[in-house]
Amino acid sequence: MNNLNQTIVAPTTNISTQAISLIRISGDDSFNIINKLLKTKIKEEKNVWVRKMFDGKELVDEVVITSFVSPASFTGENVVEIACHGGILNTQRIINLIIKNGARMANKGEFSQRAFLNNKIDLIQAEGINDLIFAKNELALKIGVNNMSGAHNQSIINLKSNLLDIISRIQVSIDYPDYDDVEGSSIPELTKALSDINEEVNNLLKRSKMAIKNTNGIKTAIVGKTNVGKSSLLNALLNEDKAIVTDIHGTTRDIVTGEINLENISLNLIDTAGIRKTNDIVESLGIEKSFKMIDEAELVLFVVNKDSIEDSENKNIFNKLQDKKFILVLNKSEFLSDEEKNQLISKFNNIVLTSAINQDINALINKIEQMHISEELTKNDALILINIEQISLVEQVKERLEWSLNAIITGMPIDIVNVDLHEAWNYLNELIGEQYDEEIIDNIFKKYCLGK
Fold first, then answer.
1. What is the pLDDT of residues 151-172, one digit of tens each?
2. How far is Cα 182 from Cα 161, in angstroms, rounded to an integer?
């Protein structure tokens, strides 16, 4: 665990050539350190100050200082934030002066870690801050903001309270077996109460697992025969010329990747080699990879042209997609009449028409969003987690709850049931950080950016 008695400093904006840089100092000695660099001192109070900063007698910069007094700050400590003129040399010089006068450089995420350790935020809020900073789409941004603010964290507190109530009922039954009329301690009542908690945990897991795919990026393979426009489609989705496009069959011989962030979903795109019969060894290896990508992908964009949509090679691809989530993308739709388009739409229920070369891909984007976005994610105000470690803890809670339910239903001794319930309760404590291992906490905050 980092030394909390030391005063720390770090830039909270990127050190680069820019108009303004922001530097944060946190710790008991924050006011003493900043006043060593000022001729006109600031008071230990919450305020905003404009001051000239000096290195000895030499003027360094004119800055705006915002000060906060413990415990009314983000970290819960005395905090001084300095808005100085930007620039790599100027910002670094001021940081070096602050270190020279008694602070040390903060570790990654140490400000947020101190906020957690000083009970200013819980772990869900801390992870929400990180989710907000690294959000790639609107859904991730919304979840990050909600979790950072603690808007929905009360649901975990309520889960803990309800579970503790059940544990207490059972414990009374164990400690005082002669009292068999403890309210809510009958087998049917305990089963009902645990089932309600288990359902709430299952719903949290369901929402979170849906959301984490959308926020981290769905592995999406673009597959199809040669020269159907797969690379053009990749370029259109990415809005850049990432893949080489020619009229020559077999131009793409290996996978080409890219990432696209839609409003509420991110896709990790993989353009694969065109599938056809060939004697070319290198192209054959690329085609073999294409089939492998179909197996590994979470979503497949199967690109076809009208004239070959049901030929033997495409039928082979259709067979590979029987148990996969896929969209049939009929490209080069600019060459089709309205009648032909209507016939295809009526024949294939999951088909979309695109003209990648003309950047006409809105129908495909809408289809992707319809398949992966539900009101349960975008309009539901319930807690959603998009951190894999947090989701893992909730899965542990679910497992212990289901063991307990099964034990009650099968007539196991009630004290055995309580062992699993205690473990579930402990996992909920870990989730919000009411109990933790110091090494784990250090590792959690090390993934944060410097200055946060």
1. 788 889 999 999 998 888 888 7
2. 18
